[in-house]
């Protein structure tokens, strides 16, 4: 008897075949099943062994991930496939024509794409310097990515989704069973798997920061990690973010499809009682406008700024106890006028950027003018449009600016606008993050300053879909940050293989 997965998921596209959310053009006539094939089986792959590296390279995997030879070969084989960049237009199209069948097609895409992305992250981790790779946090990180890869790959294997004739070029629309009960069962089964994977990676950022901190101690507190480490962190976090967006969007759409009257379990709305800056959550609802998964086509930007302000003020209160944080004043440029600004964004990503910048500005302003003050100069936020239909958000403070020696590398990982002597209690942070429900975010558990990932990840988030983040600072005066946002409908994820 066929399982629900076997019945509903009959076909899969071959490697390096373009795949979009809105359509499902698969090489379906020559697809078939491979039965009872465990991940560690020597015959696990239908592809040639010539793609695999020699056994010496495999020793790296043995020493750090405790994997079998066949698992190592599978990771390298899957990682040899190209990633498929996300198209925001297709993400929106999928949500606008949401149905059990269209969501199942997206599941088929994820079933192929996620193992590719996880395998590439594993190889990136394995290429790190030995001194960093051997730290306990990075070994934990590598083990988590290996576990997620194996779980996703085993699901794909058990679903018998292997394409066996790569020389066939005929394409046709995939035919799915009309049995919605089976399709729904497959959706729920896969959602459980994705939720398990998501929970496993709640601590990724903390593991990375802790590992880099230990590595710096090993290097006798070298001022900044090497360019090699910076490149790794940029690439790894870009890939990690792409995974989060894919998974978060699918889970949010599934929640909207099967529970339309309930908020998505990936959403989190910051309030004055406590922030959810969404380092892990993937939707921050700011209005009653219709969301499409994790995307808000008509996001109320001022409401999002206010939410980020509340989040930053909460962390400020936690750090200084009784000090009143600076206020945030929102202004419009003449080209916008007095109208409410609405713009298509992934709210969680913009919220993270705003939260980090406002948090830094609040701390700098309070410390520059004195912690005994009852009021401070406002932090000014100005909204303006550009000639290409994009949106610019300028955040300006009067916090004394950055010291000259820090202006050269403000977007480096482990850069901090605070004191370099700040002691981070990583075990406590890890424990707090682990105990938090998935609907909560990680940022509220991080220190006000000194963690060293805020500005770097903010720039990465801004650039992921064609935007940017720049910072100008005048020592003794203040700092001005400029967020450039492009219209999401025209953007494709920036990925590098």
From TrEMBL:
GO terms for molecular function: ATP binding; pyruvate dehydrogenase (acetyl-transferring) kinase activity. GO terms for cellular component: mitochondrial matrix. Its EC number is 2.7.11.-. Its main location: mitochondrion. It comes from the Eukaryota. It catalyses: L-seryl-[pyruvate dehydrogenase E1 alpha subunit] + ATP = O-phospho-L-seryl-[pyruvate dehydrogenase E1 alpha subunit] + ADP + H(+). GO terms for biological process: regulation of glucose metabolic process. Residues 350-489 form the Histidine kinase domain. This is Protein-serine/threonine kinase. It comes from Podila minutissima.
């Amino acid at each position: 008897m066929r399982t629900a997965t076997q019945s509903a998921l009959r076909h899969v596209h071959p490697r390096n075949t373009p795949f979009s959310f809105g359509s499902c053009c698969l090489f379906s006539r020559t697809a078939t099943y491979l039965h009872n094939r465990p991940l560690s089986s020597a015959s696990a792959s239908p592809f040639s062994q010539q793609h695999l590296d020699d056994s010496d390279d495999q020793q790296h995997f043995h020493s750090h991930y405790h994997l079998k030879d066949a698992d190592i070969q599978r990771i390298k084989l899957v990682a040899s496939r190209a990633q498929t960049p996300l198209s925001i237009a297709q993400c929106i199209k999928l949500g606008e024509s949401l149905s059990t069948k269209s969501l199942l097609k997206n599941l088929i895409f994820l079933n192929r794409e996620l193992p590719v992305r996880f395998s590439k992250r594993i190889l990136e981790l394995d290429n790190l310097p030995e001194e960093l790779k051997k730290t306990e946090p990075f070994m934990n990180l590598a083990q988590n990515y290996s576990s997620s890869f194996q779980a996703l790959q085993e699901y794909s294997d058990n679903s018998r989704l292997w394409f066996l004739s790569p020389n066939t070029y005929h394409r046709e629309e995939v035919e799915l069973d009309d049995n919605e009960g089976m399709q729904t069962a497959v959706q729920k089964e896969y959602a459980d798997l994705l939720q398990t994977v998501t929970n496993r990676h709640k601590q990724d950022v903390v593991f990375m920061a802790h590992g880099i901190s230990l590595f710096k101690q090993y290097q006798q507190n070298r001022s900044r990690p090497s360019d090699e480490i910076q490149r790794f962190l940029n690439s790894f976090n870009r890939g990690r973010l792409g995974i989060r967006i894919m998974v978060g969007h699918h889970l949010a759409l599934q929640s909207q499809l099967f529970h339309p009257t309930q908020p998505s379990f990936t959403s989190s709305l910051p309030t004055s009682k406590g922030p959810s800056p969404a380092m892990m959550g993937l939707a921050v609802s700011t209005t009653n406008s219709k969301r499409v998964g994790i995307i808000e086509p008509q996001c109320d930007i001022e409401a999002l700024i206010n939410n980020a302000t509340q989040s930053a003020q909460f962390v400020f209160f936690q750090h200084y106890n009784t000090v009143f944080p600076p206020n945030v004043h929102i202004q419009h440029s003449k080209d916008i006028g007095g109208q409410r600004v609405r713009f298509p964004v992934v709210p969680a990503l913009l919220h993270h950027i705003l939260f980090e910048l406002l948090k830094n500005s609040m701390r700098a302003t309070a410390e520059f003018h004195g912690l005994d003050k009852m009021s401070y100069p406002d932090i000014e936020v100005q909204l303006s449009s550009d000639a290409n239909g994009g949106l610019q958000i300028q955040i300006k403070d009067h916090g004394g600016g950055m010291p000259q020696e820090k202006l050269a590398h403000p977007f480096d990982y482990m850069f901090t606008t605070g004191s370099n002597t700040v002691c981070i209690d990583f075990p406590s942070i890890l424990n707090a993050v682990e105990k938090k429900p998935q609907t909560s975010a990680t940022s509220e558990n991080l220190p006000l300053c000194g963690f060293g990932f805020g500005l770097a990840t903010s720039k990465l988030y801004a650039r992921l879909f064609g935007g940017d983040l720049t910072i100008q600072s005048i020592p003794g005066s203040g700092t001005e940050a400029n967020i450039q946002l492009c219209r999401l409908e025209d953007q494709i994820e920036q990925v590098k293989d």
